[in-house]
């Protein structure tokens, strides 16, 4: 148990700056009270999540949503709040030029512009000290024939190579795949196989990031996790959960057993080892729930799944598997899953100098009342869609 | 063939006013040139679709997107343009009050407000002469436990009953179902069975509308069409197409064979007979394609599928079916599907005094150049999300 | 807690006779040791499940797989073993005549034969004292056009009406729906809406049975459960679990949270009340795991989900829901789900005079070694596909 | 048009020996009249398909279903019938030893046995002159924890490497992926990415085969085809069609537009060029339709899709794509799809000395009546599941 606690104490879950702003669906964005107006306020909110959970010490930025004049100042501000800057997320989907694509666009001019933005993000990595660039492309087509599937791969490969070349020492990019949305017929990086194939060709600084909401129905995500870990190509996670499409609900809310299975493969494949370099990031849309508590709950959900995964009796499991004892092996896994780890985690938090119940502690802190009162006027942060 | 042409000549496909405005995804709405600024301009665009296809004589309105001071004047404007007002579509999903639901909201105050809007739409039916109210509810919940599934059905039933009571003679409402989005765990009218059960209890003025993009993967839509026609409960269609979720692509673009099968069941079930009262409506989002040509193409796609469905040799089909001739029966259907009906439809258009190729005719009409030049300034119509 | 235990003590989960025989996929049926050779041996195995769990007192029969000369004698045998006969399951899918359908077949002769079998099953209900007939039809078509979707509904309605008429007092039938397999284009009862519509027309003796593996991907099963309970049309469950199609894995194995949500709606809708008449049945294929332990584990999985559902703090939940507290309401539900109910259930078993751990008790009982040794020769029971 | 005909004349679609035997679902295998009793009779039936279509000159074998004492004699028999031996398909899923896997089984003994079978298949390649080995593994697990996902990849890699080493000059193997069935939780080669990654490591003699029924719902198969062609890793197709899971219906029956899109990517990527080495094979289950006509229809469906794909005006398409003309580019593709190519193909057949209508020609040939009369007694071929 001591070992488990040590691992849990070292766990590091990154929250995204955009989770603190407004988000919604194409039907409606419901604004909430106290929402940040700028990146500085987003970092302050993120610092709350870390203050109450103890395991969310970094914050991902999204460019241009988090564009500031002085990134060094922003990084300093983060440090003062007790957090650090995590991955830099690029955005090549919200300029009018990108209607038909960014790096895979038929027009060389648009591609140039998009790649330019990616290179700018590399500069921001330097300015903020971030070591990870996350690349998600909304690129794709809505209609068969709209553009040439293969030519778009050629263009994608070219852009990725240019960005790869610019990465400094100790820097990497994570390539994200997504089956659909906003493109509705074909996406240029639709699945892990596509991302993997590009990353293998580029080299060790290119890795795959698994967004848990980006798969076709029924796809076994933990298999992908196990496979990528075996190949040394799992760069990280964008955690969230879904019942249907890319619903972007709180991680663990839709299928906590799946989250446990994913974390089990992470543990089994050595992915919690800091040297494995797996980034555990949240990427969610709190459309109707309050944002800071939504992030706290999500961090706790990952933590609980991790604790259960660590509780699996690996020796017993291996023995049952070797014997072909189907029910016995399954039972070993389920024993861990069925364990209530909340007391263990409350104890851990106490040892870390935190409140046993982060949700209650935040609710009682008065922070929300404070920001709701103070953050009046200005333009609330959001996606700007 | 004469009979087929007569049926095709009488076909009536309704286009939605909102198809002429901007639309997009949660990631980005790409504005287009020449987009209408008000309902009057939307009707003008819809009239173009009718002018070139000859079978799109009505336009659905959406309240409040198409709110005007004088509906009688709007209806008059439509008549002058050669079109009429079709179904009135209610909107109880874009007010801040509706974050957790409208007619199924836990709060009686919000429910009252939502029902009030629906009753206002009945008034607009009277003012415009529309005989059909289309009800789609975004109501649902994102998280298990968020609200009580059963209580929400009670509330839904209550609201529907109130609206039903207010419907005048010769009026009806169509209840739309949708599996998910914007609610991501449970939707209050998720499937045809739910809509059907409510409509059966209410009576003959309540019918089900089938949006072709609102089903779980793999669901056989033509079965639902056949079933509802058998029950006298098919009120109409919201046509569009999808590869994944509610992609809202042009109808027939993703799976033209499915559209043909749907239209075959319509034909077989007598649904083209005007007395059947089946409304054939489009409901799409032209996110990246130009809007008016997108509607023209969609109308043509439905027309082509209808022509093929009418070409099915029903006697030969029945004979093969009765004999249990699996391949023979399938071949009869496929023979019709594989026929190129474009020459027949070109001929039909010529007989109707139209150009043989509506897409080319529109492109050559100069209409787009005109609106692109004229519609400058003002606020382009859109969803206002 | 006393109340919860009382409810759990009264719970009644029916196991199916065919779960004790061999089963498999189209690729291979792997025979296992000790498998029963006749219905008497199947009942003996089922009695073991009840002996160790205390809540599986009845066994469903499948005709003709469980055809015997003297059903009264079989029922007497069951009573001696401490169990009773549950639902009678009809089979109109394994005769060569049924290749293109049974009650919906184009040929009146085949339909007559199929309906005759269903009526024979009603006779067997009388002979065995069973009050429930379960109707599953493999009927459907593989190719568009193969047969007429609507005519098949007419034929289905006719057969159901005939069977319904023959049901004695206190008897009922449950109509099962299934999206696909073995029919691969259209199934004649594909979804709950279809089953519901037929049952409503027939009357109170016709109810819907929910097989948890028979839905399209993403369908919210607990919504259907809640809806059918509200309508008084939920006749029962065929429990199993699946990741993909109708995988027929052990219930609760693929998505234990879903099973909990289903049981919560059962509890909330009064479905555990014996007067509600909801039959809780297992319907699984133990293709690779040993059959008796597979059933014991499945019964325990349903029991654990039920215990968690009963632990939900309904008052706190209602309060949070009424306030629109999204995270709070979800948390109330999750608190119950995250509770480890195994100690409670062990205690309950002890109070019922059972071993605390049914799996271990069965494993230590020597029963398997006994049947493996004794059941040599003869024809092992299976589906006979 | 001359060029198109030349390409179509050279097309080569391989039929599988097992399509001529009985097949079915886990619920029932319906036997048909005239079904072959041995590999020699299967080849005779396959020769009929070639005789009437002119483009199905080879037949895939399945070991052990097509095990014979003298493969050279079988190959000679095939030549006399006017056909050749195509791919050799291994079977490591029907021995009792393979209940928990074959090459990924926890037991080294079972893995040895399975690999031994694969090597035996390489020997049969030599004996028959086949240059292609097709590897499909049913390997996988039904329950989380049942076995170690990663260890199974290690074992798979080891077995593949051993087989790869044994391949002679000019020989290759095709690795098939499948999402699920008969394994229902995790499959060891679930998707193209997994197959691709293994093949890349092995070398040029290992390629991926795309079975069109083996994907999750919504997966864009033509994207995979385009991607693998770009990488030089598309070894071939197992054609069939599906509405739900691996339904194994006739190719083109469920979604003819998808088949066209796939064939378009084949054409666009140079996959029809014999030097590309893409094998076009059918892999279907004619559960209810007659087998030989089922194969003829399937060959014709692929041929029709190919003809349409060849009709695409590539220059016009490229021009529209380059301009970002969404509707225009889509229209170019649809123009080809909407063309009725049956007259062209009838003409082609006439030029090839064949009847214009293969289905009618076969029906009128008396072959079925002959085999139905002659093939009485003996054991009909089937899967032996």
TrEMBL record, chains A, B, C, D:
GO terms for molecular function: L-rhamnose isomerase activity; metal ion binding. Keywords: Isomerase, Manganese, Metal-binding. Its EC number is 5.3.1.14. It comes from the Bacteria. One of its GO terms (biological process) is L-lyxose metabolic process. This is L-rhamnose isomerase. It comes from Nonomuraea mesophila. The lineage of its organism: Bacteria, Bacillati, Actinomycetota, Actinomycetes, Streptosporangiales.
């Amino acid at each position: 148990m001591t070992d488990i606690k040590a691992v849990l104490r070292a766990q590091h879950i990154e929250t995204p700056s955009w989770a603190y702003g407004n988000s919604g669906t194409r039907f409606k964005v419901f604004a909430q009270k106290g929402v940040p107006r700028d990146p500085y306020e987003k970092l302050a909110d993120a610092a709350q999540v870390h203050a109450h959970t103890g395991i969310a010490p970094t914050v991902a930025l999204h460019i241009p949503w988090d564009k500031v004049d002085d990134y060094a100042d922003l990084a300093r501000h983060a440090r003062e709040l007790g957090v650090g800057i995590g991955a830099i997320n690029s955005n090549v989907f919200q300029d009018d030029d990108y209607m038909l694509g960014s790096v895979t666009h038929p027009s060389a001019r648009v591609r140039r512009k998009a790649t330019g933005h990616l290179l700018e993000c590399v500069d921001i990595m330097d300015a903020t000290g971030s070591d990870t660039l996350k690349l998600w492309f909304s690129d794709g087509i809505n209609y068969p024939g709209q553009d040439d599937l293969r030519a778009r791969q050629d263009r994608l490969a070219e852009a990725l190579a240019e960005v790869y070349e610019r990465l400094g020492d100790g820097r990497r990019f994570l390539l994200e795949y997504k089956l659909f949305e906003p493109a509705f017929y074909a996406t240029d990086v639709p699945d892990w196989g596509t991302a993997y194939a590009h990353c293998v060709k580029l080299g060790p600084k290119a890795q795959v990031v698994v967004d848990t909401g980006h798969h076709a129905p029924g796809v076994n995500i933990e298999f992908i996790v196990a496979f990528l870990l075996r190949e040394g190509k799992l760069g990280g996670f964008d955690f969230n959960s879904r019942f249907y499409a890319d619903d972007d609900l709180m991680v663990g809310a839709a299928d906590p057993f799946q989250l446990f299975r994913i974390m089990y493969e992470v543990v089994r494949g050595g992915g919690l080892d800091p040297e494995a370099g797996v980034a555990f990031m949240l990427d969610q849309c709190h459309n109707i729930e309050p944002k800071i508590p939504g992030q706290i709950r999500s961090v706790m959900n990952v933590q609980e799944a991790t604790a259960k995964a660590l509780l699996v009796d690996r020796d017993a499991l291996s023995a049952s598997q070797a014997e072909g004892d189907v029910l016995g092996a399954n039972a070993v896994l389920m024993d861990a899953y069925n364990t209530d780890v909340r007391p263990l985690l409350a104890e851990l938090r106490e040892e870390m100098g935190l409140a046993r119940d982060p949700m209650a502690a935040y609710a009682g802190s008065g922070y929300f009342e404070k920001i709701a009162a103070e953050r009046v006027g200005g333009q609330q942060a959001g996606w700007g869609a």
